[in-house]
Amino acid sequence: MTRATPGRLWKYVCGPLRLTAYFRAPGDGRGRPQIPAAALVWALVIGQILRECSFHGVEALVRSPARRALRVARSFGDDTLAYFTERLEPEPTRTALAATVRQAKRNKAFGHWIGLALDGTAAGHGQAEGCALCHPVRDAKDQVIGYLHHFTMISVVGTGLALPFDVESYGPGDSEYVAGQRLLARAITRVGPRFADDVVVDGEFATAPFLHVASDLGLPVVARLKNNLPTLLAAAAARFTAQPPTLPLDDGGEHIELWDADDFDPWATLRWPTVRVLRYRQHQRQGAVVEAYWLTDLPPQRVSSRLLYRFAKSRWEIENAGFNDGKTRHGMAHLTHHHANSLLVGWLLTILALTIERLYRLRYLHRGRHRPVTAIAFVRALRLSLCPPRRSAPAAAPG
Fold first, then answer.
1. What is the pLDDT of residues 161-183, one digit of tens each?
2. Three-state DSSP class for 149?
3. Cβ atoms 296, 276 nearer than 8 A
4. What pTM does this model have?
């Protein structure tokens, strides 16, 4: 691996990713800024890449001798970051994220088929209500025992490189389902209608309004089929149970059975002429058997059963490489500063850091035939680069 340093990462951000204009003008809403917005935004991004997710952690970095190696122009405190993120406009960061994944496509970072995944999660548990995004958490007696915050996220999937590039927060009275429709429409507007080839979602989004929104945007949908569509699920189960698999296949040593048919009747409010349903039965190495049903408007002439199965399984990328990675390694579930705009900006900067890190580590550094650098090895290399080598003491003159 080429020696990884924050300086080289910064050159990549300004060069191949073309994000110089964003860092110069990230949407600073402060009236009389004393510290450049570029220094604060880059400190938050490089702090996330180094897995320093709290404002106190970023403050410790920029007030240490490592500040110069981090390419941060000024030192500052955690209260500065709180004040800054309360006033930072989220739209420039959203625009930068969309531009980054578009640039990645131009740079041939993806394969020929690009999928999107959309899903929601909860984060930021607190004991007291502190912002407009707080959702009350109730116990069995309907007593409020705390508060959570919710958002939906959209990510590139199915390409070997999961890249989240937008989030939509929502407060009480709103829902993941409605926020997901807003998020999908905004994301496609920013990246363009020809950027992706499909969107994969969980069963909560398998409703006529969401499917129509996706169709109007020019996106085929691959959605989990669950009990919220009982008639279609029962019809598919009755037919496939009485038939042998359409296609058996081996997937990494696991036996997969597929059933596939494209002539199921749509429900009353769905304007599709027919519905295609895929059933898979996965025999895992440990002996467990996993079964699931999926619906889509992708025709079999365009997408085979084998490929449709890959699309369905790609939904787990937003769970594993999005929410799980973000929460366990990058503090996505942590209340860095309990303010609605600060939370939204924090989530956006977290996924910007994830996207930059993955493109740099898995595409820019992974050239040739060597193995890609693991995330933890990359973080260690960056941290080691922050410590300048000590000068050895001059040898004593011979007596």
1. 999 999 999 999 999 999 999 99
2. strand
3. yes
4. 0.93
